[in-house]
């Protein structure tokens, strides 16, 4: 706030003043006493509601340290804040607070041509559009309909060049931007079909209310949710669905709003329905009847990071909660969402439960889903496409539940799917229409493609760790959601029938709903998103400065404010016998009158800040891109680079040294903002790998497959470009388009952070006014001429009071009449300016306007003063003409006489100058001769008696190629010395000739001898060289022979080593194979040992049975006794033979030939043991008639098995032995 805002005029005791408390607070009080010498005042606080002073002693303040700002009259508000008597921050806030009070609530207020909208946080009674359509806007109250009607009329105005319109709506989250844009769109869709009135007389005069009218009841519309479709639809949705052919373009346009809100809005700390993207909607009209023919929607900076990382205490996008609370069991079953409890279902998804906020008291997700499906049908998205759309939404939820574990591999820690994530992965792949293996590989593996020379590309896969896999999962999810959002925008564009080919031909009105300035310090940190948002606001602020302040300058230009036109009735020249009067033009200093109109209004240009952020020659965005392309980029390197490059920039102040390593600061138009550098590099990266793109391309979903191949994002025009680069291009394109239109501004203000109805938080409102540039605009307007009134109004007030006779003297010249009134009221000429149609007052001269307007009767002398003013003006005009003629006549004769006098004086001065020049030339020649003679005497005197120095001087003179004229006398003076030098020169020449002759002869003789010596030495050297050459040739041949021999030996040795290595590898492989086979045979032997043990047990059992049979076979006792001697012998033979089989001891016989015989003898012996009554046969062959016992059969079986196993074992051992002998 400038000093001109404070104490506008002299402080007066008893008046109300505002005193600033803290950074944003204001206190109203009355000035009880004031000492002009000490600047000390007694300030008593006043109750703003009643106007009474509070019962507490006044405060004593120093006005020089705590300035006071005059307050406007209480209990009165202004619809246009430029009409306030005192214009400063406290006056603005007080006027907005009074107008937004619940009783007789008027939330809209103008500030010049800027509409300030205070969010009422409730639904008010809808204003009739007919009050604005075709009516005089100066009689209409402030409302978004007012702005929309003004823009439509300007669009319809006939001009040589088409003037498109734009309405820029800005404000912080929760300030009502979306609702205001709905009101604008609703009005324009109705206005485009309404009959157009030709009476577009728009004189935007301030609406001043001196008393509060009776309160008008406000009607609420159901739940205070901003997502109420029926409040802006002109027809019932069900009827529109039944009759799709009768749906108008305006109705389809309004039905796109629920779609944008479901997929682009979310619940935040500041707003339950916050738009997480910016949008610019163009309403295209016909060029003849100005009917709505099409519309388009451009989106900016969708907050994709909210999908995977919703802030704590906030929700994800509305569509997820609406889908899960839709109670559509068939759809939920199709999407693998089978739980009956929606809350439990929501809590089971990672993307929804990580923010600890899943509900909103002001939103009905189930009802909003039904409205969403109806809206999708309205824009041409049928049920089949809706199913495909919701499959992708459900697939993103399942994809978020894919978790990863880490395991140690040869490549280090590698990510693997968690056991619980298999079902989620399969569900996500099914809903997204991609193969499970490809989706898993895209998250777990990184593909690297390399090509060398003419070879084909080589593809390598690297394992990712768990963090990288989760990052890839989130990247895929964000890319798919962005594709879904862009597909919806394309579908809406098709439904809105925007004619792109006639874009530059058909007129349009653009409605921009953009995010407001953000500074989360000190409660939270400002990051990369805040930098982009604030850059967008800087761009819009630049447009605001151009449009608002330039419009004010154009008004001054059209009114010719810079022309000195309010003059005192004084003569411009001195009358005879009178002193020179003061200048006639006293409205402003001469420098002010001669300056251009642009100097009437000065404002702070934020172009330097824009260049700092987005300049192509090294701005912040360009620096981020440069550091991102370096090897090993990091946020720390980026912060150091920024501080190094911009430390001398006035918009880049250095933070505290303790914080300099983690943040940087930028001075914006709304204040200095601290940005924390964390994650700048990652958030700026918009490059999607080819692996992800191929995954999306192979999807079976029609939505993903319909994505244009040129780009993965709706606004990306540069392949692989960064987020900052693309957003900068978008903002520059948007600014270029807005600058080509006539801009209308709406500043939305949130009354309190808690979104409570009827609460007006001054501190919060002041912050928003400063961030929106409103306070700055008021400060700038104060430097100009903010108070103005039409001449017609002055005439309407004073003409009836002075009478038609007096007014007739001015010949219907309203401007002259107003000037006479100001002179009659003795207004200071420097307090006002006269335009062509308006009277402008300077800042702080509102009391003069009150004096001019608040009049019920005039002074009886007023008519005489006005008549005298006219007569005196006419008389002064006539006398001025005569005096001007006399002055010009006198000037002419004076100039003629002066020319003649100048000619005579010139001739006399020429004659006198010639005589003086001749005298001076004679004196000069004499002086030169005397000086030359005197210098010669001095030189001769100096060289007297010094022959050596004379000789040196003579040498120096002779060495010069040419002597000046003044030095030639020296050669005459030094003539004798010169002749002596000539004789010496001849003598020296003769001596030199004699010596040269003698020297030549000596040199000739020396050279002849030298040549003879050289010839002899050459012959000797040639002979020695030939011998040396022959010796070197022999040595070279010997050396080459030995090199070849050594090389052959090395090759042979290398071949043998290689052959031995290969042979050893083969032997090692054979040895390993045999070792494995031996191990298998050893296992077989162990098994047979177990079987033999079982056979021995059976044998023991048979022996016990034999002993038991002894009692039964007493009659054979004699035979048994006879054979007792043979039984032990047979047993020992059997055991020895079995032992030989197991130990492979083939000493008694050859196993290869006698295996069958061994088996037969073993069976025979066993048979003889089992039946001792039978005699042992003499041969080894057993009788075929006898029936073998079980023991005999078992023994024979074991014997044959042993013989079968022993033969290959012995062969293998013999082979191993032969191989070992060969190797070693």
TrEMBL record:
One of its GO terms (molecular function) is ATP binding. Residues 1064-1133 form a coiled coil. The keyword DNA-binding does not apply. ATP binds at residues 171-178. Gene3D superfamilies: 1.10.10.820, 1.20.5.4820, 1.20.58.530, Kinesin motor domain, Myosin VI head, motor domain, U50 subdomain. It comes from the Eukaryota. InterPro entries: Kinesin_motor_dom_sf (IPR036961), Myosin_head_motor_dom-like (IPR001609), P-loop_NTPase (IPR027417). One of its GO terms (cellular component) is membrane. Residues 731-753 are annotated as: Actin-binding. GO terms for biological process: actin filament organization. Residues 220-229 have a biased composition (Polar residues). Residues 197-229, 1163-1193 are annotated as: Disordered. Residues 76-854 form the Myosin motor domain. Pfam families: Myosin_head. Keywords: Actin-binding, ATP-binding, Coiled coil, Motor protein, Myosin, Nucleotide-binding. Residues 1179-1193 have a biased composition (Low complexity). Belongs to the TRAFAC class myosin-kinesin ATPase superfamily. Myosin family. PANTHER family: MYOSIN (PTHR13140), MYOSIN-LIKE PROTEIN (PTHR13140:SF845). This is Myosin-like protein.
């Amino acid at each position: 706030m400038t000093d001109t805002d404070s104490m506008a005029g002299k402080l007066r005791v008893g008046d109300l003043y505002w005193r600033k408390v803290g950074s944003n607070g204001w206190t109203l009080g009355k000035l009880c006493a004031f000492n002009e010498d000490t600047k000390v005042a007694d300030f008593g606080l006043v109750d703003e509601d009643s106007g009474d002073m509070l019962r507490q002693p006044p405060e004593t303040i120093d006005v020089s340290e705590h300035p006071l700002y005059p307050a406007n009259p209480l209990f009165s508000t202004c619809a246009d804040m430029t009409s306030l008597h005192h214009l400063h921050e406290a006056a603005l806030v007080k006027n907005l607070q009074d107008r937004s009070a619940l009783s007789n609530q008027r939330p809209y207020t103008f500030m010049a041509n800027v509409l300030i909208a205070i969010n009422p946080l409730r639904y008010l009674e809808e204003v009739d559009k007919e009050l604005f359509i075709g009516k005089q806007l100066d009689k209409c109250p402030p409302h978004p309909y007012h702005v929309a009607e003004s823009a439509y009329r300007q669009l319809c105005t006939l001009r040589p060049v088409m003037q498109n319109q734009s309405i820029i709506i800005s404000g912080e989250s929760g300030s009502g931007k979306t609702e205001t844009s709905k009101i604008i769109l609703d009005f324009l869709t109705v206005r485009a079909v309404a009959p157009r009135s030709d009476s577009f007389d728009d004189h935007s005069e301030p609406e001043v209310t001196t008393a509060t009218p009776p309160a008008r009841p406000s009607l609420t519309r159901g739940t205070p949710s901003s997502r109420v479709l029926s409040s802006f639809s002109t027809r019932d949705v069900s009827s529109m669905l039944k009759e799709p052919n009768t749906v108008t373009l305006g109705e389809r346009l309004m039905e796109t709003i629920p779609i944008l809100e479901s997929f682009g809005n979310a619940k935040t700390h500041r707003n339950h329905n916050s738009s997480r993207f910016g949008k610019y909607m163009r309403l295209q009209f016909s060029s003849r009847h100005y009917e709505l023919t099409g519309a388009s929607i451009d989106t900016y900076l969708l907050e994709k990071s909210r999908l995977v990382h919703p802030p704590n205490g906030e929700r994800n996008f509305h569509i997820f909660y609406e889908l899960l609370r839709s109670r559509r069991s068939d759809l939920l079953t199709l999407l693998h969402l089978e739980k009956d409890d929606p809350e439990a279902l929501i809590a089971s998804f990672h993307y929804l439960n990580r923010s600890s906020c899943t509900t909103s008291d002001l939103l009905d997700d189930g009802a909003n889903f039904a409205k969403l499906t109806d809206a999708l049908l309205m824009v041409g998205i049928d049920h089949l496409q809706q199913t495909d759309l919701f499959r992708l939404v459900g697939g993103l939820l399942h994809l978020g539940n894919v978790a990863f574990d880490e395991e140690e591999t040869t490549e280090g820690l590698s990510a693997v799917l968690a056991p619980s994530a298999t079902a989620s992965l399969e569900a996500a792949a099914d809903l997204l229409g991609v193969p499970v293996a490809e989706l898993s590989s895209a998250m777990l593996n990184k593909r690297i493609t390399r090509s060398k020379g003419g070879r084909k590309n080589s593809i390598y896969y690297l394992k990712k760790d768990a963090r990288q896999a989760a990052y890839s999962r989130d990247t895929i999810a964000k890319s798919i959601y962005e594709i879904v959002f862009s597909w919806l925008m394309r579908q809406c564009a098709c439904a809105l029938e925007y004619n792109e080919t006639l874009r530059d031909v058909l007129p349009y009105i653009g409605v921009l709903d953009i995010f407001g300035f953000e500074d989360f310090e000190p409660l939270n940190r400002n990051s990369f998103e805040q930098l982009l948002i604030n850059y967008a606001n800087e761009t819009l602020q630049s447009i605001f400065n151009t449009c608002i302040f330039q419009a004010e300058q154009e008004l001054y230009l059209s009114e010719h404010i810079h022309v000195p036109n309010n003059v005192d009735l004084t003569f411009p020249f001195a009358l005879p016998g009178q002193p020179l009067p003061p200048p006639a033009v006293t409205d402003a200093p001469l420098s002010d009158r001669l300056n251009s109109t642009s100097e009437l209004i000065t404002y702070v240009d934020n172009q330097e800040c824009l260049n700092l952020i987005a300049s192509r020659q090294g701005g912040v965005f360009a620096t981020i891109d440069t550091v991102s392309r370096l090897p090993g980029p990091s946020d720390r390197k980026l912060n150091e680079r920024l501080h190094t490059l911009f430390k001398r920039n006035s918009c880049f102040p250095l933070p505290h040294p303790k914080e300099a390593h983690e943040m940087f600061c930028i001075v914006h138009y709304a204040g200095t903002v601290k940005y924390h550098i964390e994650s700048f590099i990652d958030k700026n990266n918009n490059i999607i790998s080819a692996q992800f793109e191929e995954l999306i391309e192979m999807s079976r979903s029609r939505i993903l497959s319909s994505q244009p191949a040129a780009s993965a994002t709706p606004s990306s025009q540069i392949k692989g470009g960064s987020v900052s680069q693309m957003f900068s291009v978008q903002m520059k394109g948007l600014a270029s388009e807005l600058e080509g239109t006539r801009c209308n501004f709406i500043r939305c203000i949130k009354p309190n952070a808690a979104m409570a109805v009827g609460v007006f938080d001054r501190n919060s409102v002041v912050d928003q006014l400063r961030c929106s540039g409103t306070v700055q605009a008021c400060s700038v307007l104060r430097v100009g001429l903010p108070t103005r009134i039409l001449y017609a109004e002055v005439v309407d007030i004073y003409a009836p009071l002075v009478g038609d006779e007096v007014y007739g003297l001015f010949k219907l010249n309203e401007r002259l009449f107003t000037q006479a009134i100001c002179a009659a009221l003795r207004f200071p000429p420097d307090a006002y300016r006269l335009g062509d149609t308006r009277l402008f007052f300077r800042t702080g001269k509102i009391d003069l306007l009150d004096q001019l307007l608040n009049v019920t009767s005039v002074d009886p002398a007023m008519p005489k003063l006005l008549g005298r003013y006219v007569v005196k003006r006419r008389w002064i005009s006539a006398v001025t003409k005569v005096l001007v003629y006399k002055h010009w006549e006198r000037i002419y004769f004076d100039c003629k006489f002066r020319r003649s006098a100048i000619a005579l004086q010139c001739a006399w001065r020429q004659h006198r100058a010639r005589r003086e020049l001749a005298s001076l030339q004679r004196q000069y020649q004499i002086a030169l001769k005397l000086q030359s003679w005197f210098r010669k005497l001095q030189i001769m005197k100096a060289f007297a008696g010094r022959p050596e120095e004379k000789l040196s001087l003579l040498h120096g003179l002779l060495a010069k190629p040419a002597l000046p004229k003044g030095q030639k006398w020296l050669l005459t003076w030094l003539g004798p010395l010169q002749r002596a030098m000539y004789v010496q020169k001849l003598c020296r020449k003769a001596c030199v000739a004699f010596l040269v002759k003698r020297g030549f002869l000596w040199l000739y003789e020396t050279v002849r001898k030298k040549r003879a010596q050289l010839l002899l030495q050459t012959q000797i050297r040639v002979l020695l060289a030939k011998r040396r050459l022959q010796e070197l040739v022999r040595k070279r041949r010997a050396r080459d022979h030995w090199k070849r021999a050594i090389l052959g030996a090395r090759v042979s040795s290398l071949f043998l080593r290689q052959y031995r290595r290969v042979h050893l590898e083969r032997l090692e492989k054979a040895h390993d194979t045999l070792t494995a086979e031996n191990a298998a045979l050893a296992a077989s032997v162990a098994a047979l040992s177990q079987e033999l043990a079982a056979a021995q047990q059976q044998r023991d059992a048979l022996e016990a049975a034999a002993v038991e049979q002894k009692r039964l076979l007493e009659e054979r006792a004699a035979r048994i006794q006879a054979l007792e001697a043979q039984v032990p012998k047979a047993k020992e033979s059997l055991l020895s033979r079995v032992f030989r089989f197991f130990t492979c001891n083939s000493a008694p016989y050859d196993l290869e030939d006698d295996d069958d015989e061994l088996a037969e003898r073993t069976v025979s012996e066993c048979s003889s043991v089992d039946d001792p009554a039978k005699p042992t046969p003499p041969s080894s062959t057993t009788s075929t008639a006898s029936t073998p016992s079980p023991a005999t059969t078992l023994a024979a079986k074991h014997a044959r098995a042993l013989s079968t196993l022993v033969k290959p074992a012995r062969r293998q051992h013999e082979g191993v032995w032969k191989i070992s002998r060969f190797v070693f």
